[in-house]
């Protein structure tokens, strides 16, 4: 099938005569997959127990006839009005006990047995009816779980929470110990005394808050798993997924990945943020890493502007193509948009679509059709994978705990801290996996740990063993402070990493808003946000604070441990200083970029597998640049697109009619502003190796170790 390409399709918003037009336009845009039915519950079940699937039969049959695969939604993301009218108890409540009413979407309590019962009944009907439909490619359960209702504090949720606590702790005594309830006279005598962390006079118990976030995540996952079980009974072997969101604290992508057959992400880059492609890159690498490098799906992005930001800028020419190819370059096997046809009414009528209000005579449709044709021209990319020798650790529990109240500083935001450390790797052109601390790390030459506040003793031992075995570890400030119950590790912070880092932190010294300090030594530059009183216990001091209250004290250290080395950074270094440090650490670890000598703003990645080996070059700047290749390669996009009169490759992967193109070997590539190049060795292009000079020396690659 190649790279799947398409959009959310919502035919219920349009009269039936438009549907035939849609199929013709999808053919012109080289669409190969649509997500169907996400918000169709009210159409499919207009009254309790009365189902209308005739319209959906016709849509699916039409898509099948056009050779378009379907990612069929379970329709449960937005209950119909009759459900909340008959059963108002399904509506969620906030921490103040105020009910959230229907009129938007996601107006359900995840713990509600009534909601789950009705959702399950609908999914039973859908699965039984469409399990064998030839257009069905995969199931899409729910939609953006936790986007609007990520926690509910109603009595139903309170009872569910108490059941969850009994399963987790067994006894009230164990709960009291985990929550440190001896403080502020909070000790419980019975589980029935426990409430959700509703609005309180002052800071609620932090361990209680952390557990409620875990519980709420689990309640959402239970909804997903209940629907998945229904689908498994009726359509075994058909993969299931759901669309996760970036930087989304309520849903632990690593925990959910074990229950998803393929990871899927919605990502909306902001045209007004010049470097938002780096945030995208981080989230793309996380999706790719979550299931061991398996290709993932970009299920939603905007072809132009969105409708929900304060200022909704359109994507300038070339940006949609560039950012779509970025997802593919970082492991995506699908590029889909929200949505196919722009709505005329409703809350998202100003959200762009592949077919805008202005129809096909628009820049957006022309660019979308050109991108579909281009993606269809390189089907062999599908299924290939990337590899990395650097891992950056991320942990949902640690983020949740770090960002609670009553901390030394509320300015510590985990996504921002993670990007601080990801950025210099991205800018250096280094491939990076994003992993939870419990994953196997022995295959990585460098592991980067940005402010992992919550760290279990077991994960700390794993990091220590990694360094002892020859690994290189960089840890930043405020890491290894508390255990899984948000209790400070005894023995001097960061106690579980004290031995491997060769230091301890006597005091945390957060900086005032806007304040900066300087560091000097082997690392030089400004720093902000945070500082610490570091006491070296064998660690070598590489840089010291040059001014401020901690002037003369250690800021950056290095410690040899076993056969490896551990670095520690006790402040937030400015980007240039952190880049210089990480360049030094990378050199010591023997980590090289994917492609040396890249111009600023150019991203290089590699995917490889049975289909061949592919080098992607993406210019995130607006000025043209020239990139020297490590060996002569074949450009797959220059003149290599499909015949513009041909349809998409189709669900079954039927070959497309192609122009006869002589692809020459090139040693340099000129990338225009927002330009993209996809290249391969001659041995990976049928017929190219047979031309004079076409055969390349074996073992020469564009991928660094």
CATH fold call of the largest domain: TIM Barrel
Poorly predicted residue ranges: 639-650, 652-661, 689-705
**Which sheet architecture does the biggest sheet show?**
10 strands, mixed
- The strand line-up of the biggest sheet is 10-9-11-12-19-18-17-14-15-20
Whole-number average pLDDT?
93
Overall 3D form? globular
Sum this structure up briefly.
This protein has 3 domains: 4-150 and 220-381, Glycosidases (TIM Barrel); 390-589, Class I glutamine amidotransferase (GATase) domain (Rossmann fold, 3-Layer(aba) Sandwich); 602-690, Golgi alpha-mannosidase II (Immunoglobulin-like), CATH 2.60.40.
What does this protein look like?
The protein folds into three domains: 4-150 and 220-381, Glycosidases (TIM Barrel, Alpha-Beta Barrel), CATH 3.20.20; 390-589, Class I glutamine amidotransferase (GATase) domain (Rossmann fold), CATH 3.40.50.880; 602-690, Golgi alpha-mannosidase II (Immunoglobulin-like, Sandwich). Helices cover 28% and strands 19% of the residues. The chain has a ten-stranded mixed β-sheet with strand order 10-9-11-12-19-18-17-14-15-20, sandwiched between helices. Strands 5-4-3-2-1-8-7-6 form an eight-stranded parallel β-sheet, with helices on one face. A five-stranded antiparallel β-sheet has the order 21-22-25-23-24. Helix 15 (457-468) links the parallel strand 11 (446-449) and strand 12 (472-476). Helix 5 (113-130) packs parallel to helix 8 (206-234) and helix 10 crosses helix 14. 50% of the residues are buried. The model is unreliable at 639-650, 652-661 and 689-705 (pLDDT under 50).
């Amino acid at each position: 099938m190649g790279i799947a390409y398409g959009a959310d399709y919502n035919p219920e918003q349009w009269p039936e005569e438009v549907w035939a037009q849609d199929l013709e336009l999808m053919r012109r845009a080289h669409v190969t997959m649509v997500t169907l039915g996400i918000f169709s519950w009210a159409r499919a079940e207009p009254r309790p127990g009365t189902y209308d699937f005739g319209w959906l039969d016709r849509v699916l049959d039409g898509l099948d006839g056009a050779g378009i695969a379907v990612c069929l939604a379970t329709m449960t993301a937005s209950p119909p009005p009759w459900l909340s009218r008959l059963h108002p108890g399904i509506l969620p409540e906030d921490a103040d006990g105020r009910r959230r009413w229907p009129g938007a979407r996601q107006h359900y309590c995840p713990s509600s047995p009534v909601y789950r019962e009705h959702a399950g009944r609908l999914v039973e009907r859908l699965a039984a009816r469409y399990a064998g439909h030839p257009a069905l490619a995969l199931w899409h359960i729910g939609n953006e779980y936790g986007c609007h209702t990520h926690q509910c504090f109603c009595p139903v949720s309170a009872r569910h929470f108490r059941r969850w606590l009994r399963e987790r702790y067994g006894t009230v005594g164990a709960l009291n110990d985990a929550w440190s309830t001896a403080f502020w006279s909070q000790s419980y005598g019975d589980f029935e005394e426990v409430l959700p962390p509703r609005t309180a006079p002052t800071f609620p118990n932090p361990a209680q808050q952390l557990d409620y976030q875990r519980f709420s995540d689990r309640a959402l996952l239970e909804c997903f798993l209940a629907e998945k079980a229904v689908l498994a009974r009726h359509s075994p072997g058909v993969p299931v997924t759901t669309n996760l969101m970036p930087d989304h604290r309520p849903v632990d992508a690593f925990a959910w990945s074990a229950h998803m057959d393929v990871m899927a992400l919605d990502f909306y880059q902001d045209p007004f943020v010049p470097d938002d492609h780096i945030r995208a890159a981080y989230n793309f690498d996380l999706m790719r890493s979550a299931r061991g490098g398996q290709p993932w799906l970009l299920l939603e992005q905007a072809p132009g502007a969105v409708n929900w930001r304060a200022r909704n800028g359109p994507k300038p020419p070339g940006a949609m193509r560039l950012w779509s190819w970025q997802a593919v370059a970082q492991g995506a096997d699908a590029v889909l948009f929200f949505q196919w046809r722009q709505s005329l009414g409703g809350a998202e009528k100003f959200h762009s679509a592949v077919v805008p209000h202005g129809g096909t005579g628009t820049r957006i449709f022309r660019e979308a059709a050109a991108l579909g044709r281009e993606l269809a021209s390189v089907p062999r990319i599908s299924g290939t994978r990337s590899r990395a020798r650097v891992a950056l650790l991320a942990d949902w529990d640690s983020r949740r705990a770090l960002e609670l109240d009553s901390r030394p500083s509320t300015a510590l935001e985990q996504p921002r801290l993670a990007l601080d450390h990801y950025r210099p790797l991205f800018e250096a052109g280094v491939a990076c996996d994003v992993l939870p601390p419990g994953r196997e790390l022995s295959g990585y030459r460098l592991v980067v740990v940005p402010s992992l506040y919550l760290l279990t003793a077991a994960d700390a031992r794993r990091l220590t063993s990694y360094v002892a075995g020859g690994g290189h570890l960089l840890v930043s400030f405020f890491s290894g402070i508390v255990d899984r119950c948000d209790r400070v590790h005894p023995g001097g912070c960061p106690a579980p990493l004290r031995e491997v880092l060769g230091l301890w932190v006597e005091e945390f010294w957060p900086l005032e808003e806007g304040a900066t300090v300087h560091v000097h030594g082997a690392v030089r530059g400004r720093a902000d946000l945070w500082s610490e009183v570091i006491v070296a216990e064998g660690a070598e001091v590489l840089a010291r604070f040059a001014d401020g209250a901690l002037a003369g004290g250690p800021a950056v250290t290095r410690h040899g441990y076993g056969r490896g080395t551990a670095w520690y950074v006790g402040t937030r270094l400015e980007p240039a200083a952190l880049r210089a440090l990480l360049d030094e650490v990378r050199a010591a670890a023997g980590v090289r970029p994917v492609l040396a000598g890249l111009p600023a703003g150019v991203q290089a990645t590699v995917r490889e597998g049975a289909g061949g080996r592919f080098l992607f070059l993406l210019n995130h700047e607006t000025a043209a640049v020239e990139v020297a290749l490590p060996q002569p390669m074949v450009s797959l996009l220059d003149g290599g697109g499909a015949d513009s009169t041909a349809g998409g490759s189709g669900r079954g992967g039927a070959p497309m009619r192609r122009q006869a193109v002589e692809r020459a070997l090139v040693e340099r590539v000129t990338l225009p502003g927002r330009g993209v190049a996809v290249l391969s060795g001659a041995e990976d292009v049928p017929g190219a190796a047979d031309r004079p000079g076409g055969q390349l020396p074996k073992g020469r690659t564009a991928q660094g170790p």
